[in-house]
Design brief:
9-stranded mixed sheet; 9 strands
Length: 310
């Protein structure tokens, strides 16, 4: 029999999308699944939908818990998972029905500890369905460069992650998790195929209104990347490029949400790091504006830039 995959699905306020998500998991051509639905005290009808599906398929296990957030829901699922492999699905997303079959073919053929795919969004991707087996440094370069930290894009060998947990109450928790993962693996399978359908319609924490919590956690996550990246000189350029790009975005957002940074504390911090990381190779007009123009002018430019994009 093929190895069992434990599919952990945190569920919260996704009634509109939950049937589509669960149907796409149940209809997988890879059948040896343990499907763990963690109802995080969802205030809508999600809990009842989970129970309804559990009566139809004995591969489904339902956990109902007090609302603790996405990290704790994932951790609860991992606590009871019995599969040899672990994967996560966000309950407003859905899967191509061949996803696990195709991914596991590569896992078993090449004895991979982790395999990763590309999410399908409204933006076309240059995907050719090829598999690349990466060492941890090569994987780090690609993952950091493309911000490919999301755990739902991966299947993990359980022995690699069974003692890992997500940090409760933290936005960008996948960044911390993936950076820790890269220190544990010897090879990573990158399957350049869009088999995971990422939902951009639902308002998630990441896509919701810009807040002080977002800037604080964004800086914390970025500092974690810098502090925990593999010790290899070839990764310095990747880190510098990431800092310039990511912090420039935050600077622009703060420049048109000035109430979040009234004393300009965060903008000074971001500007200093951008200036230190800037090079001929990663300099762009937006980052050059940040390091060279006064704050008030940047506020005007950022507001005007947002208006022009509408």
């Amino acid at each position: 029999m093929k190895p069992k995959i434990s599919v952990i699905v945190p569920v919260y306020k996704v009634e509109e999308y939950l049937h589509r998500c669960l149907d796409s998991i149940l209809n997988q051509t890879y059948k040896n699944l343990e499907i763990i639905l963690v109802d995080d005290e969802s205030p809508d009808n999600c809990g009842a939908i989970c129970e309804e599906y559990a009566t139809k398929d004995d591969r489904i296990i339902v956990i109902h818990q007090e609302n603790q957030g996405l990290s704790c829901a994932r951790n609860s699922g991992l606590e009871i998972a019995t599969g040899e492999y672990i994967t996560y699905v966000d309950s407003d997303d859905h899967l191509d029905v061949t996803m696990y079959t195709k991914m596991m073919e590569h896992v078993l053929e090449h004895d991979l500890e982790v395999i990763e795919i590309v999410p399908k969004t409204n933006t076309p991707k240059n995907c050719d369905d090829t598999l690349t087996i990466e060492d941890p440094v090569t994987a780090s370069k690609r993952i950091i460069s493309y911000s490919a930290f999301s755990v739902w894009r991966r299947i993990f060998k359980k022995s690699i992650v069974e003692d890992m947990r997500f940090i409760p109450g933290l936005i960008h928790q996948d960044v911390f998790y993936t950076m820790d993962l890269l220190k544990r693996i010897t090879k990573n399978g990158f399957f350049n195929s869009t088999l995971y359908y990422y939902n951009t319609e639902n308002i998630s924490i990441i896509r919701s209104k810009y807040t002080l919590r977002k800037i604080k956690t964004g800086i914390r996550a970025t500092e974690y990347i810098v502090a925990n990246v593999l010790d290899d000189p070839s990764l310095k350029e990747t880190i510098d490029n990431y800092l310039v790009y990511y912090y420039t975005d935050h600077y622009f957002l703060l420049s048109r949400n000035t109430a979040l940074d009234p004393d300009k504390k965060y903008r000074r911090q971001l500007r200093k790091t951008i200036r230190q990381s800037l090079s001929f190779n990663n300099a762009a007009i937006r980052s050059l504006l940040v390091v060279s123009l006064p704050t008030k002018i940047m506020q005007f430019i950022s507001t005007s830039y947002k208006s022009l994009k509408k």
